[in-house]
UniProtKB/TrEMBL annotation:
UniProtKB keywords: DNA-binding, Transcription, Transcription regulation
Single GO term (MF): transcription cis-regulatory region binding
Protein name per its UniProtKB record: LysR family transcriptional regulator
Protein's organism: Amycolatopsis vastitatis
Keyword Membrane on entry: no
């Protein structure tokens, strides 16, 4: 099946928002017959009836409303991709310099930057991506104005503010023995098992280490150290071993049963995601606006 194009998804979303094909077509600057043809093509591609067309106008079917909701999320992800890519391109000479750890850079920061750009379109934003330790070093060294980290810290010399929460989850492939467990793992079992892990300095790695320490268990036993969440995820899918990873990074794989989450007793794998900046410095201008947006819009 040929996948739907973004313009058709955007058209469907506008029909949902505006209540008619004609108004949606006008918003996109295309003729109504062209819009109707695009929607018919989309319906054929998906094998679903998306729009009820009557003499009184057009409205989305129940299936159409569901697809439009999913399309909203797809288009938001694409907007985030474009915003993030632009920020990565304009690191040097940017008016607002930002650094973010991997999870935040992938799931949150592009949307926050995009909102800054919408309210202040002339603001150039540069983004650097690294692990939490690297981000903190960039902030402390004055090379960026504001950083976002996922490690629990502490962060000497830096002021911090909570912007979101996240939860790590133990995952295994469907064929792994843990996928069939009826009782949760214990902290000792998790600590005794070699895991696919992120590199030292990663917020995910530090969170797991801290959680096991609080549970009175030993340190993580690395089976394989990798430099990104996607590499960890793919290694687990390939059968390398279990991993502890942000649930944000395995939503699709868990839904598709490529990965199975495993419950753990006595280990708190929740974490707070934070903004960091030099202690004693008052944020102003775009940096202050970005922090305000992050605090307001960050989940949790």
């Amino acid at each position: 099946m040929t996948g739907p194009d973004l313009d058709s998804l955007r058209l469907l979303v506008l029909v949902d928002d505006l209540g008619s094909i004609g108004q949606a077509a006008a918003a996109l600057g295309i003729a109504q017959p062209s819009a109707s043809k695009r929607l018919s093509t989309l319906e054929r591609q998906l094998g679903l009836s998306l729009v009820d067309r009557t003499r009184r106008g057009s409205a989305l079917t129940p299936d159409g409303r569901v697809i439009a909701g999913w399309a909203h999320r797809v288009l938001a992800e694409v907007d985030g991709l474009r915003t993030g890519a632009e920020a990565l391109r304009t690191q040097r000479g940017a008016r607002l310099r930002v650094a973010a750890s991997m999870t935040l850079a992938e799931h949150f920061v592009p949307a926050w930057i995009g909102e800054v750009k919408r309210t202040e379109p002339d603001t150039d934003v540069g983004l650097e991506v690294g692990n939490s330790e690297q981000v903190a070093a960039l902030v402390a060294g004055g090379r960026v104005d504001l950083g976002f980290v996922e490690s629990p810290g502490p962060w000497p010399g830096l002021a911090t503010r909570r912007v979101a929460v996240d939860r790590l989850v133990v995952v295994v492939p469907a064929g792994h023995a843990w996928a069939r467990r009826r009782r949760p793992l214990t902290a000792a079992e998790l600590a005794a098992t070699p895991l696919v892990v992120r590199e030292p300095g990663s917020g995910t790695r530090e969170t797991v280490e801290a959680a096991l320490r609080r549970a009175g268990a030993g340190p993580v036993k690395p089976l394989l150290e990798l430099g990104s969440a996607s590499a960890v995820r793919n290694a687990v899918i390939a059968g390398a071993g279990p991993a502890v990873i942000s649930d944000l990074d395995v939503v699709r794989e868990v839904a598709g049963r490529r990965l199975v989450p495993v419950a753990v007793d006595g280990v708190d794998l929740g974490r707070v995601l934070r903004a960091v900046w030099p202690a004693g410095r008052r944020l102003a201008g775009p940096a202050a606006e970005l922090l305000t947006l992050a605090v307001k819009s960050g989940p949790g």
